[in-house]
C-alpha cells in the first residue's frame, strides 16, 4: 500500500542515504506538518540477552515516516533534516510519549528505549517533558531507557551532562548509542554513568569479516565497560556466526536482525503472548 502511495519519487528517496540541499528543503517542507497529519509511527526492535535462552529484555522504539508524496523515508535521512529545522523537539517528544504509552501494554519487566537527539536533550523543558510522559502514562522510570550518542558531548557538553544527571537521579536508564563512531574522548564516561554502552554495528560487521581492528575495539570496549560496571549491547547482529562471536567477546545484550527486525506494535505484542505461552507450557 505504502509503495503505491509513494509513487515514482519513492525510489529516489530511499536509495541515497544523505539528502542533498534540494532534497532537504523539500523534506523539511513535508516534515512541517507530518506530526499533525499522523504520518509518523513507531516500530520496535527487540533487545535480547546475549546468553541463555535469549530472553527479550526490551525494545528500541524506531521512528518511521510515511509521507503521501515520498512514501517511507529512512530516519537516517529525515532525522538530520528535522534536527536542522528544529522540528526534532516536537517530533522527539511525540516519540517519547508514544513509546511510554505502548510500553504500558507489555509485561512489566520489559524496557523501552527511546533515541534522543542532542537538541532535544538540551531543549529548555526536556526533563519536565519526560517526567510528564512517565506521569501521564504510568510507566515506571526504570523501564524507560534514553539513548544518546557521543555527539552530545561535543556541543554544550556541560549542559548535556547536567541534564543526563537529573534524568538518572529520576531512575531513568541511560544508554550510549553507536559507541565508537563519534567523539573519541573517553573522559566523559567519568562524569556521567551510563547503564549500557551500545557497540556500533560497524564494529560487529567488521569483526565478523575478520578485521583485527574491529575485534580489538570490541574487546577493549567490553573490558572497559565491565570495569566501569556498565552493560554492553552489540548492535546489528545478523546471523549465527556473529552471535557466536559476540558471545565470545562477552557482550551482555544483543540487538539485530538475527533476533528480530524492527516491527509494528502489534507484532511486538504478539511476541509476548508467544513468550508467555511457551513459558507456561
Ligand atoms: P540507532 O539508534 O542506532 O538504531 C539502530 C538502527 O540499526 C535502526 O535503523 C535499525 O533498524 C538498524 N538495525 C538494527 N539491527 C540491524 C541489523 O542486524 N542489520 C542492519 N543492517 N541494521 C540493523 P533505523 O530504524 O533506520 O534508524 C536509524 C537511526 O535513526 C537510529 O540509529 C537513530 O539514530 C535514528 N532514529 C530512529 N528513530 C529515532 C527517534 O525517534 N529519534 C531520534 N532522535 N533518532 C532516531
Ligand atoms: Mg538507538
Ligand atoms: Mg545504535
Ligand atoms: Mg547504530
UniProtKB/TrEMBL annotation:
It comes from the Bacteria. Residues 24-276 form the EAL domain. This is EAL domain-containing protein. It comes from Sphingorhabdus pulchriflava. The chain holds residues 396 to 676 of 676 of the full protein.
Amino acid at each position: 500500500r505504502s509503495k503505491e502511495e509513494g509513487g515514482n519519487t519513492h525510489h529516489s528517496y530511499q536509495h541515497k542515504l544523505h539528502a542533498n540541499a534540494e532534497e532537504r528543503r523539500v523534506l523539511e517542507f513535508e516534515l512541517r506538518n507530518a506530526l499533525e497529519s499522523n504520518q509518523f509511527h513507531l516500530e520496535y526492535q527487540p533487545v535480547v540477552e546475549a546468553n541463555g535462552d535469549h530472553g527479550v529484555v526490551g525494545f528500541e522504539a524506531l521512528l518511521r515516516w510515511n509521507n503521501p508524496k515520498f512514501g517511507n523515508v529512512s530516519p537516517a535521512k529525515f532525522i538530520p533534516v528535522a534536527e536542522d529545522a528544529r522540528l526534532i523537539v516536537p517530533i522527539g517528544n511525540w516519540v517519547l510519549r508514544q513509546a511510554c504509552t505502548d510500553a504500558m501494554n507489555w509485561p512489566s519487566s520489559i524496557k523501552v528505549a527511546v533515541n534522543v537527539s542532542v537538541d532535544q536533550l538540551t531543549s529548555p523543558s526536556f526533563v519536565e517533558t519526560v517526567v510528564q510522559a512517565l506521569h501521564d502514562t504510568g510507566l515506571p522510570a526504570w523501564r524507560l531507557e534514553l539513548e544518546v550518542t557521543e555527539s552530545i558531548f561535543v556541543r554544550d557538553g556541560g549542559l548535556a551532562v547536567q541534564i543526563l544527571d537529573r534524568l538518572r537521579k529520576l531512575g531513568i536508564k541511560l544508554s550510549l548509542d553507536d559507541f565508537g563512531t563519534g567523539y573519541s574522548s573517553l573522559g566523559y564516561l567519568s562524569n556521567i554513568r551510563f547503564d549500557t554502552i551500545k557497540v556500533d554495528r560497524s564494529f560487529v560487521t567488521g569483526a565478523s569479516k575478520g578485521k583485527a581492528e574491529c575485534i580489538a575495539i570490541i574487546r577493549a570496549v567490553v573490558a572497559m565497560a565491565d570495569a566501569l560496571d556498565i552493560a554492553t549491547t552489540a548492535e546489528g547482529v545478523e546471523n549465527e556466526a556473529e552471535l557466536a562471536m559476540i558471545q565470545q567477546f562477552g557482550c551482555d545484550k544483543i540487538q539485530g536482525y538475527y533476533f528480530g527486525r524492527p516491527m509494528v506494535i502489534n507484532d511486538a505484542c504478539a511476541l509476548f503472548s508467544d513468550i508467555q505461552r511457551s513459558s507456561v507450557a
